[in-house]
Write a structure and sequence with these properties.
about 160 residues, alpha+beta, 3-stranded antiparallel sheet, globular
């Protein structure tokens, strides 16, 4: 491992702890050259998962591709990197718990939408606009209306 700041190889682990209900390890590391600290996450890679896309094509599960989509939806929103990592870990745990080698991209998208809905409504709408392929502003408005209606149902009446 290299320091992300100075590229030095001499790194020490300062702190380790389980995260994501024991499904990953968070390590605080310190560069022995520049003394800067950074965090890494280690996760167990259990199964090779194949993702079946809408058009029937299949490709190997790519965590970074999914993370990029979530990052775009969460851009300039008050969502921490840890929240995004936790979301990814939860989605991957759900995928692995299905004990299937193939999962549909729509299932993954639906899981992500559920997680984003709990965290941030703007990020949810951004992700939904891609996931649900809104073809018009009217379709986007309909989805926003559904979202607002669902939120009003959750609020207790005064």
């Amino acid at each position: 491992m290299f320091c992300p700041f100075c590229q030095n190889e001499s790194i020490k682990v300062v702190d380790s702890r389980d995260v994501h209900e024991g499904r990953a390890i968070r390590r605080r590391r310190e560069c022995l050259k520049c003394s800067r600290r950074f965090t890494t996450y280690e996760e167990i890679e259990v199964l090779r998962i194949v993702v079946e896309k809408r058009d029937g094509q299949r490709e190997e599960y790519d965590r970074e591709k999914i993370k990029r989509g979530i990052d775009r939806a969460c851009e300039k929103r008050p969502i921490s990197a840890e929240q995004i990592e936790r979301m990814l870990a939860d989605v991957e745990f759900c995928i692995h718990s299905k004990k299937r080698e193939t999962v549909k991209s729509r299932e993954i998208g639906k899981m992500i939408l559920e997680k984003l809905r709990e965290i941030d409504e703007v990020a949810y709408m951004r992700f939904a606009s891609v996931y649900k392929s809104f073809g018009s502003a009217r379709r986007f408005q309909e989805e926003a209306g559904k979202f607002i209606g669902d939120e009003k149902k959750k609020q207790p009446e005064n």
